[in-house]
Amino acid sequence: MLYQQTIASPFSLSGIGLHSGEQVSVTVSPAPVNSGRYFIYGEAKIPADTTVVAASQLSTELRQNGTGVRTVEHLLSALFGMGVHNACIELDRPELPILDGSALPWVEAIAKVGIATQVQGDRLIPLPEAVTVSKGDSFVTAIPADTLRFTYGIEYPTQAIGEQWFSWSPAIANFSERFASEIAPARTFTLAAYIDQARSAGLIKGGSLENALVCDAERWINPPLRFADEPCRHKLLDLIGDLSLLGFLPRAHILAYKASHNLHAEFAIALAQKL
């Protein structure tokens, strides 16, 4: 039996969509046992699971019957990091707000309304064998282990980032507390050299120095960082959000290197087929 919780009461947040540049309002409400996390946009109900994940540049998109919602990873990471398995998420535009570029505003809102326990049980599912997906020199892999552990590596052609590795092994008993303080505050980031290319592709219309860290070849344009390895921690934040499409996490050591949202999603689908 999986451990399940929901939020104790509804909350709402609003802001700008990172890619659309549109103002969007979101209301997150409690949901019954076994309902999972799901999005309501217009007449559509879109579950946050691996069956509806769609390829998307620089964000994660969920799409069903022609309707999609995108940039869902920060809210999903916050919900999962805070132990919320069941939630109804209503939005008035098809992209979630980027807020400050991290999951912290979502975490703070969840903490303010509180958590309601619905079903007791195991939080982690044993992993029967190793699972790996890769593309070029990028990969995500899970190795059976006695406890949950994450290791993430990134490499960028700039002195400001370079090569970074971050390893995180929270005990289940204090997972939410450590997620809130060590992972959730890490903000999204980019290189200044990538901005024109992304905007010419119709992306990051709502991006600014208020909701993303930006660096040039040598330095951060809008310091200070919240952590010395904030970019690497943010990639782990994204990974947790993308893996939460499983509805649970395996008891495993999960390692990722230079992975994208698409590779995260492929990995979640591969895990779903094994568990």
Provide key terms for this protein:
alpha+beta, six-stranded mixed beta sheet, five-stranded mixed beta sheet, 275 residues, 18 strands
What does this structure look like?
There is one protein chain. The chain is of the alpha+beta class and about 280 residues long. About 25% of the residues lie in helices and about 35% in strands. It contains 6 helices and 18 strands. Strands 11, 12, 13, 14, 15 and 18 form a 6-stranded mixed β-sheet that branches. A 5-stranded mixed β-sheet has the order 2-3-9-4-5, covered by helices on one side. Helix 1 (about 75-80) crosses helix 5. The longest helix is centred in the last third of the chain and has 14 residues, at about 230-245. It is globular, with a radius of gyration of 17 Å.
In angstroms, what separates the terminal alpha carbons? 14 Å
Count of runs of 4 or more consecutive helical residues: 6
* Global outline: globular
Please compute the radius of gyration using only Cα atoms.
Answer: 17 Å
Structural class: alpha+beta
Largest sheet, strands/sense/barrel? 6 strands, mixed
Strand content: 25-35%
Order of helices and strands: EEEEEEEEHEHEEEEEEHEHEHEH
Mean of pLDDT? 94
Helical content stands at 10-25%
Counted beta strands: 18
Q: Uncertain spans, ≥5 residues at pLDDT below 50?
A: none
